[in-house]
């Protein structure tokens, strides 16, 4: 499988979008070739963290720092439902029946985010909903992917020994 490589040097926008593409693809690669049961295997008890949980969480992050942040001013509606202090973690609480819908939602959020990014010519553009710049939102999202790709790498290695970026 061909992978998206690390971006070379260049302008700030190209570098940010390059790292976003790299990290999105890294998570896709961590999930590639696994069956539904492997995708929902928890990292360690009692953690709910799994590869599918990370995919669902990143769909939420694409929404929060992209689709919602750059879209019209509105209340944030999470992909998987509203979170409460004592409630379920809708993104991480998963089972094997959720694989197809979860992967499709992640794809939809990435596509919608990319369409909004393309509408903004400057990294200084302020997202109407979040009040933060495109630059800030992209950097925050790249950081979320980088953090969780580290988790995904460890989970994948525990599943079948496969490592790599």
Can you tell me about this structure?
The chain is mainly alpha-helical and 165 residues long. It has one domain. It is 56% helix and 0% strand. The chain contains 5 helices and no strands. Helix 1 runs parallel beside helix 5, helix 3 runs parallel beside helix 4 and helix 3 packs antiparallel against helix 5. The longest helix is centred in the last third of the chain and has 27 residues. The mean pLDDT is 92.
Based on secondary structure, the structural category is mainly alpha
What is the number of independent domains? 1
Percent in helix: 55-70%
What is the H/E order?
HHHHH
Quick overview:
By secondary structure, the protein is mainly alpha-helical. It has helices at 12-31, 36-39, 51-70, 99-119, 134-160.
What's the layout of helices and strands?
Elements: H1 12-31, H2 36-39, H3 51-70, H4 99-119, H5 134-160
Helix pairs in contact: 1-5, 3-4, 3-5
Key terms:
mainly alpha, 0% strand, 165 residues
């Amino acid at each position: 499988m061909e992978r998206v490589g690390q971006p070379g040097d260049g302008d700030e926008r190209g570098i940010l979008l390059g790292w976003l593409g790299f990290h999105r693809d890294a998570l896709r690669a961590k999930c590639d070739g696994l069956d539904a049961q492997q995708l929902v295997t928890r990292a360690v008890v009692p953690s709910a963290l799994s590869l599918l949980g990370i995919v669902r969480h990143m769909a939420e992050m694409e929404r929060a720092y992209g689709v919602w942040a750059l879209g019209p001013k509105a209340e944030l509606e999470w992909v998987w439902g509203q979170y409460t202090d004592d409630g379920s973690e809708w993104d991480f609480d998963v089972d094997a029946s959720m694989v197809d819908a979860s992967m499709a939602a992640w794809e939809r959020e990435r596509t919608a985010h990319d369409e909004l990014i393309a509408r903004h010519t400057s990294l200084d553009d302020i997202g109407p909903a979040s009040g933060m710049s495109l630059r800030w939102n992209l950097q925050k999202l790249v950081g979320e992917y980088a953090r969780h790709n580290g988790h995904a790498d460890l989970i994948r290695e525990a599943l079948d020994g496969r490592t790599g970026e």
